[in-house]
Every structure is written in structure tokens, then in C-alpha cells.
Amino acid sequence: MDELLDAIAALVTLVSPEKVNVIATHVRRTEASKAAMALLNVVGTPVAGTLVEALAAAWQNTTVGSDELASMLIVASHVYTRAASEQSTELVWTGPTTPFVSARRTEQALLQVINSAKQSLFITSFVAYDVSTIVNALNVASGRGVIVSMLLELSQDQGGSINFDAIGKMITLVPAAKLYAWRDKSDQFSDGRVHAKVAVADGRMCFLTSANLTGYAMEKNMEAGVLISGGIIPKLLDDHLQCLVHTKIVKPI
Fold first, then answer.
1. Which H or E run contains 171?
2. 0.85 exceeded by pTM
3. Is-contact 213 129, C-beta < 8 A?
4. Rounded to an integer, what distance in angstroms lies between the CA atom of residue 154 and that of residue 194?
5. What is the pLDDT of residues 162-191, one digit of tens each?
6. In sequence order, what DSSP letters do the residues of 15-62 get, joined into one string?
7. How would you classify the pairing of strands 128-129 and 213-214?
8. CA end-to-end span of the chain, whole Å?
9. Closest of 20, 94, 83, 87 to residue 55, by C-alpha
10. Strands (E), the chain
């Protein structure tokens, strides 16, 4: 059965819902032993044809009936299409590019998250400096009523690990932002640092990245990340960051 389920999953992720319905109609009219021939010309591309052949071969190793398989195909296609419409994921990349893969730039993705925020925005970074476009966007967000929260690494003078006061600088640059620090650490995390680089808006969109809030990270460094819109991940990330605040693991400056 697992082989058949895998074949169904592979097919519905490649073939349109309309084409899946056509395949399901043909499946209802045939039986497992004749499926390979009956489904031969239903799809028009070699790759899709290979997946249909795999489906037919897997079907023969089960006791699943024609109507049951047709229903499985339609349900799997509906669930996949619904899930895909509720969440999108984009590759984000800064640095050398190639003509073979397209990706959003780090600054573009971060600005999209900031500009999309309507109620809340939470950003974490190890360091932050020399990012005028980001600072401007944060101030604009604050101006339209968005609650902007930021968690940054402390300076060495404050018990952290960076050699300048990024938090103090950000207080000056984005005065309306709520700034947080990870100061009182348990023994388990005594040498830990704020090394997460994320941004989440309203629990609806988030950006996970290797990039710090620096000019070099936005323009020069080789940085990678993903931009996620919709689905459960942005909500989980937002909930986790808010819980870090509510449980006083991170505290306001």
C-alpha cells in the first residue's frame, strides 16, 4: 500500500487537478491488470507518463478497487492543492547568482515581511548596523501602528559577545521599537548567543535567514534563507517569540 500511496503523492504534485480528474475517470473504467495500457495516453509529457506507469504498477500489488483508487487520487489532489494555496515558500539568496536558479534577494524578502505587517512585527538578529532601508521601513511600520519588537545580541560591556552596542544604536534609529535582550541565562545556555536571524509579521509571513541586519548581509555576503507566507510555520514562530517575552526568558531593555 505504501508504494501506491507514494505513487499517488508523486502524481498529484506534478499533474494539475483537472488532469488528475481525467486520470481518475479512466481508472474507474478499468482494473489494475489493464491500467498500464488504459492510462498510457492520458498525460502528455514523458515525466507524467512515467508517474502514471508507476501508479499502474503499484496498483497491481494491492487489492484496492477502481472506484477506491479514483477517490484516493481526487482526494489527494484536493488536499495538495489546498495546502499549496495556503502556504508558499520562496528561496532567498544574496551573493553570486547563476542563470539556472531564480531567487529573491535578502533585502527584498526582509522588506516584504516588514511592509506586510499590519499589527505586529518581531525581528531577531545577532548584530544590526548600516541598514538604512530596513531602518526606514521599520519606522514606517511603527508609524502605521505596527508593534515592532526586536531581539538582539548584547555588547561585551553588557555581558554579550559583540564589540559594540547594537541595541543602543537601534533604540536611537527606531525609537518606537520594543528592544529585548537574552541576559539572564540558565546554566545550560550560559555561553549562548542570540544567533537566530528571523522576521515574522502578524504570524502570517516569516523570513528565516543566515543574514544579520547589516549592509554586507543585504548586499555583499553569500546568504541564504526562505520566505514563508501562510501555513502554520509563521504562526508557530510568532507564538514562540512572544512566549520568550512572556516567560521573561528575554527581557525588555
1. helix 166-173
2. no
3. yes
4. 8
5. 998 999 999 999 999 999 999 999 999 999
6. S-HHHHHHHHHHHHTS-GGGHHHHTTTTS-SHHHHHHHHHHHHHHTTS
7. parallel
8. 57
9. 20
10. 87-94, 120-125, 128-129, 147-152, 178-181, 198-201, 205-209, 213-214, 223-230, 251-252
Cell of 158: 553588557
Checking DSSP bridges between strand 147-152 and strand 120-125, what pairing results, if any? parallel
The amino acid sitting at 240 is H
Question: For the range 237-244, what are the long-range contacts, defined as Cβ-Cβ under 8 Å and sequence gap of 24 or more?
Answer: 237/198, 237/200, 237/203, 237/206, 237/208, 238/120, 238/122, 238/200, 238/202, 238/203, 238/206, 239/203, 241/122, 241/124, 241/149, 241/151, 241/198, 241/200, 242/122, 244/151, 244/180
- CA nearest 65: which of 33, 37, 32? 32
Contact 32, 59 (CB under 8 A): yes
For residue 139 the three cell numbers come to: 519606522
* b/e burial code for range 217-246 (CB count within 10 A of at least 16 → b): bbeeeebebbbbbbbebbeebbeebeebbe
Q: Which residue is it, cell 477502481?
A: 66
Give the pLDDT confidence of 44-54 residue by residue, as tens digits. 889 999 999 99
